[in-house]
Design a protein that fits this description.
Length: 362
C-alpha cells in the first residue's frame, strides 16, 4: 500500500532567510529534505560556464559536492573510460546496462523526467559507490532526492521524492531541484538546478510565476504527458502561509579556482589550464593519480620555458591547502583524506622516489 502524502513547510530552501514553502511528499522523504537543509544545503543559482545543459550541470555540481565531502573519488574520469571487460573485472556493471529502457525510471518523476536521463544518473552513482568501495573499503548506498515545483496557470505545488540507486539502506541522499511550467494541454517545460549550499535564489512563486508562464508560452512544444500531480492536488495548503518574497541573497565572494568546472576535462586539458586554476578541487583530483613531481613536470611541459610553476613546493602547498579545505567541508580528518589519496595512487600504480629537479624551470 502506498504511503500517505504529507505536507510540511520548509524555510531556507532557496538560501538563508528565504520564505517558507509547502512541500508534499511521504514523511520519510520530507524528513530527509529537512536533514539536508540542516546541513547547510540549499537550491543553487549556479549556471553552467561550459554551455552544458541544466540537467548535466546540476548532476556535475552534486558529484563535485560528493567528492569534496569524501563520498566519491576525485579520479572518476578513469572509470568512465574502462571497457566492459575491464568494468567486469573490477565489479562494475557494463556500460550497456546504463540506459536500460525497461527500468522505466523516467516515468517515476512527478511529472515524468525529461531532460535528465535518471536511469543513466542512477547507474553512474552505482559506479561511484563501487569505486569508492575499492579505494576505501566502505561502499555508500546513494539515493537521489528530487524536489519538483510544478506550475500550471496560477497554481503551484512542490513535491519531494526519492529514487534509490541500488538496493539497501541509503547512506547518502543527493538532492536536485527542478521546476516544470505546465501547459493546459499536458505539455511542460523542465528546468534543473543543483543543491549545493553556496548561494540562494528566490523561489519561483508569485511574481516569478508570471515570468515562468511567459517562458512556457514561448517555449518549444514537447510530447504530451499526463499530469501525475492530480493525485495530490485536491488538497492545498492554506493561503495565509504565503509570504512576501525575500530579497535575493548576495552570493559570497569566492576565489576564481573555486568555480573551475574541471570535472569533464581530460588530464591533458587540465594540466594545460591556467596555472592559477590548478588549486583546490583541481589539484586534489590530480593528486589521486599523479605524484607531486609528475604534476609539476606536466604543468610546466604544457607551457613555454620559464613561464610555468617555479617550484614543486608550490604543488605541495596547494595540495596541503586543498586537503585541509576538503577536510573542513566533509568533516573528515586530514589523515583520512591523505590515506585515501595514497590508496588511490597505489591502485593507479603511482610511485615517486628521488630528488625533485626544478633547475629547468627557475
Amino acid at each position: 500500500m502506498a504511503s500517505a502524502m504529507s505536507c510540511r513547510f520548509f524555510h531556507g530552501l532557496f538560501g538563508p532567510g528565504s520564505a517558507a514553502v509547502p512541500v508534499w511528499g511521504v514523511m520519510e522523504t520530507l524528513a530527509r529534505l529537512a536533514n539536508a537543509l540542516e546541513t547547510g544545503l540549499s537550491v543553487s543559482d549556479q549556471t553552467s560556464k561550459t554551455g552544458s545543459s541544466e540537467a548535466y550541470h546540476a548532476t556535475e555540481v552534486v558529484i563535485g559536492w560528493l567528492q569534496r565531502s569524501g563520498k566519491a573519488p576525485y579520479d572518476l574520469h578513469r572509470v568512465a573510460g574502462l571497457s566492459d571487460e575491464q568494468r567486469a573485472a573490477h565489479g562494475f556493471e557494463p556500460k550497456s546496462a546504463v540506459s536500460d529502457p525497461a527500468a522505466s525510471v523516467q516515468n517515476m518523476g512527478v511529472p515524468p523526467f525529461q531532460e535528465l536521463d535518471m536511469t543513466a544518473f542512477l547507474a553512474g552513482l552505482r559506479v561511484v559507490a563501487r569505486y569508492q568501495e575499492l579505494l576505501t573499503g566502505r561502499k555508500p548506498v546513494f539515493q537521489v532526492g528530487v524536489l519538483t515545483l510544478t506550475v500550471q496557470g496560477i497554481d503551484q505545488q512542490f513535491f519531494a521524492q526519492t529514487l534509490m540507486a541500488e538496493a539497501g539502506e541509503a547512506t547518502d541522499t543527493i538532492w536536485l531541484y527542478r521546476w516544470c511550467t505546465m501547459g493546459f494541454d499536458g505539455r511542460y517545460d523542465e528546468h534543473w538546478r543543483p543543491f549545493d549550499g553556496l548561494t540562494g535564489i528566490v523561489p519561483h512563486s508569485t511574481v516569478a510565476l508570471h515570468r515562468d508562464q511567459t517562458m512556457w508560452q514561448n517555449a518549444p512544444k514537447r510530447s504530451v504527458v499526463s499530469n501525475q500531480l492530480s493525485a495530490i492536488s485536491e488538497s492545498t495548503c492554506p493561503p495565509e502561509h504565503q509570504q512576501q518574497l525575500p530579497k535575493k541573497q548576495r552570493a559570497p565572494k569566492h576565489k576564481r579556482y573555486e568555480h573551475f568546472q574541471h570535472h569533464q576535462m581530460s588530464d591533458d586539458e587540465l594540466f594545460a589550464a591556467p596555472a592559477d586554476l590548478l588549486q583546490g578541487d583541481a589539484i586534489l583530483r590530480l593528486a589521486y593519480s599523479y605524484s607531486n613531481q609528475v604534476i609539476f613536470n606536466r604543468i610546466n611541459a604544457a607551457r613555454l620555458e620559464g613561464t610555468g610553476i617555479k617550484s614543486v613546493n608550490v604543488i605541495t602547498k596547494r595540495l596541503t591547502h586543498a586537503i585541509q579545505a576538503a577536510a573542513e567541508t566533509s568533516g573528515r580528518s586530514v589523515q583520512d583524506i591523505r590515506a585515501e589519496i595514497t590508496a588511490a595512487k597505489s591502485l593507479n600504480g603511482v610511485r615517486h622516489k628521488g630528488k625533485v629537479d626544478v633547475a629547468p624551470y627557475t
